[in-house]
Write a structure and sequence with these properties.
The structure holds 2 protein chains of 2 kinds. By secondary structure, chain A is mainly alpha-helical. Chain A has helices at residues 3-22, 26-51, 60-77, 81-105, 110-130, 156-179, 181-191, 193-198, 203-229, 234-237, 240-253, 260-279, 285-300, 304-317, 324-331; strands at 140-141, 231-232. Helices cover 77% and strands 1% of the residues of chain A. Chain B contains 11 helices and 4 strands, in the order ααααβββααααβααα. The radius of gyration of chain B is 19 Å and the shape is globular. The mean pLDDT of chain B is 87.
């Protein structure tokens, strides 16, 4: 990684960190924290789905695992919340590895992989809804005990900075993946698995690493969700809403790019809020917008918002020389 | 332990619920077999059809079984239009895109229904909703028995359409060899849209059969769509007899799991079968050609 890789991440993080000094209203901070949590989970999805090309429709399996692991550890075993954060991340990575091991070893790809992840998330949801350790349908309440050692802060801004720092860390991780040998192999598997294998890439190992990383990052976001709202139940943790959120953000923002998931989460939730302002009390209006934007993005902007920007920039740079990139876009 | 009579009754009731699963899966497997796409909007489209049946009953006083007759062409038209003007053009023929476009569609449809009808659960009651038929010592639900009969007839009709009509021949040709079909003058986008329409028409029938004994709310489709995926995968993607047998089988499994494990865990058997089939034999039990 070079300075050129780091500077944009650093600048954006610093700018975002200044926000709570300007904005002090609680609803706005709540919105920002929630959006960053979604962005973080979506970054996890993007490692597997964006760089690895393995579209998961069940990332709730990891999000929920993160949320439940930290809640159960704190409530039933008295484990410290910070330790819970680490253990939840590791649990998510382990679940990711296990699901990956089962599905990739059986050679599931494309739609089949999407379906099997969906089914895993659903099995977890039903189990969490019925088991007693998870509190069943009533869910789990994490005890309100405001103290930094409990990962509960009197000031919302502190939690915002914490989530922001983790999002920035995952931005760095993603940039590192992009520049690393592992990332190159992952992209090779995405573009053509058979060709990658022929060139000596162990595609199973590469995909397993990706899904473990992906599961860990998404579990971290689930853990933060539980820690911020202090409540988990099966439909929040393992519900299909979060699987959809985590997949929409990278696809809208720019799949397989470093900033895509963050841009996507910001855009989607920004649009959702605008729609709510205009339409008032109509339930589900923000989701109608999400679905519509997804269809439009697939139809007209396969590279998401960042892809569109890149296209505009390319066009601005070289009207006379139509590069190969331009042609390939036009072909699609 | 349970008496054999209770188990048998549960199995038979499951068989009859399974018939409706089979109808839903029939539409899904037809679309998969021809277009080679996984239609994520299938559940949301079913919800639309169920609300249509409910509206016909609540506002116009039409019997749910009679409502099937006008609903079949309506759903066909909706499916035809969606494939022709939305899914086809938006997805540029790419597998992953289609998955995303149909996901987007399902989100939009579900939440439009939510905006219109709110999240309340609605039921309709008919004279025959709770009628039972005695078969020896066993009591069978009358509407579900009708469901089983109609499901078998519809599967037969669909088979006839596919095997005995020119349209069916064109559909099969496109399913086997898209380019070749195009070369001999078959309008492929039209055939795609017709197939999608037929898949949606199956949902109209399923909705009419479900409503006398079931309820509807904007999120109900999700519960069915995973079951339908399971049936389709189990029966072999694209296989009509597979969908029928798979549906019946899954209905029985769900009913027996519900009996032995309790209602909250009843569906888990379905998903475990789903995962196991995907992992061990993704071509399904009947889909040897796939």
């Amino acid at each position: 990684m070079t300075a050129r890789d780091l500077i944009p991440i650093a600048v954006l993080t610093v700018l975002a960190a200044l926000l709570p000094l300007v904005v002090t209203s609680s609803p706005v901070l709540n919105f920002l924290v929630f959006m960053l949590i979604v962005a973080l989970g979506a970054q996890g999805w993007n490692i597997l789905g964006g760089f690895g090309g393995q579209f998961s429709f069940g990332h709730a399996a990891f999000f929920g695992t993160g949320a439940y692991v930290t809640a159960i550890l704190q409530l039933r075993f008295g484990v410290n919340a910070w330790a819970g954060l680490v253990l939840a991340t590791l649990a998510g990575a382990a679940v990711g590895w296990a699901i990956g091991f089962l599905s990739f070893r059986s050679g599931l790809r494309g739609s089949y992989f999407a379906l099997v992840t969906l089914a895993f998330a659903e099995v977890f949801r039903i189990l969490a809804n019925a088991a007693s350790v998870t509190g069943g349908a009533a869910g789990l309440l994490i005890k309100l005990d405001v103290h930094p050692a409990n990962l509960q802060f009197g000031d919302r801004a502190v939690f915002y900075w914490l989530v922001l720092a983790l999002v920035a860390a995952v931005l760095l991780l993603t940039r590192w993946i992009q520049r690393s040998r592992f990332g190159a192999q992952l992209v090779a598997v995405r573009e053509n698995e058979d060709a990658a294998k022929a060139l000596g890439v162990n595609s199973l190992t590469v995909k397993l690493r990706a899904i473990a990383l992906s599961g860990g990052v998404t579990a971290l976001s689930g853990c933060l969700y539980a820690q911020y709202f202090l409540y988990v139940d099966a439909n929040i943790a393992y519900g299909s809403w979060i699987s959809v959120e985590l997949l929409l953000a990278p696809i809208i923002g720019g799949v397989g790019t470093v900033f895509g998931p963050v841009v996507g989460a910001l855009t989607l939730h920004g649009l959702g809020e605008v729609a709510k302002q205009f339409a008032g009390r109509i339930p589900g209006i923000d989701l109608i917008v999400f679905g519509g934007v997804l269809v439009l993005a697939v139809a007209f902007a396969r590279g998401g918002i960042l892809g569109l920007l890149e296209r505009v920039r390319d066009r601005g740079r070289g009207m006379m020389a139509r590069g190969p990139k331009e042609v390939s876009h036009a072909d699609r | 332990m349970y008496s054999p009579q209770i188990i048998l009754e549960a199995a038979l009731n499951g068989l009859m619920t399974g018939a409706v699963y089979a109808l839903i899966a029939l539409g899904l497997t037809l679309i998969y077999g021809v277009l080679h796409i996984i239609n994520f909007a299938h559940g949301a489209l079913l919800t639309c059809a169920m609300f249509a049946v409910w509206v016909a009953w609540a506002w116009l006083g039409i019997d749910p079984y009679l409502a099937i007759l006008p609903l079949v062409p309506l759903m066909f038209a909706l499916g035809y239009g969606l494939q022709r003007f939305v899914i086809g053009p938006a997805s540029h023929g790419d597998d992953g895109n289609i998955l995303l476009v149909t996901l987007g569609l399902s989100i939009v449809l579900e939440n439009v229904l939510l905006a219109v009808f709110q999240s309340d659960t609605r039921t309709l009651d008919t004279d025959y909703s709770f009628q039972v038929v005695a078969l020896g010592p066993l009591l069978l639900s009358y509407p579900r028995l009708i469901g089983l009969g109609v499901a078998v007839v519809v599967t037969g009709l669909l088979w006839l359409v596919l095997n005995r009509t020119d349209t069916g021949k064109a559909i099969r040709a496109v399913a086997k060899e898209k380019l070749g079909a195009n070369l001999v003058g078959i309008d492929v986008p039209h055939v795609y849209a017709v197939t999608f329409g037929l898949g949606c028409a199956c949902l109209a029938v399923a909705a009419g059969l479900l409503m006398p004994t079931f309820y509807v709310n904007p999120r109900i489709g999700g519960a069915f769509v995973l079951v339908a995926f399971t049936v389709v995968v189990l029966g072999g993607m694209g296989s009509l007899p597979g969908a029928l047998l798979g549906g019946l089988f899954i209905g029985v499994v769900e009913s027996l799991c519900g009996l032995f494990l309790g209602d909250s865990l009843g569906q888990i058997g379905i998903f475990l079968i789903f995962i196991a089939v995907l992992l061990v034999r993704p071509t399904g039990l009947f889909g040897a050609k796939a």
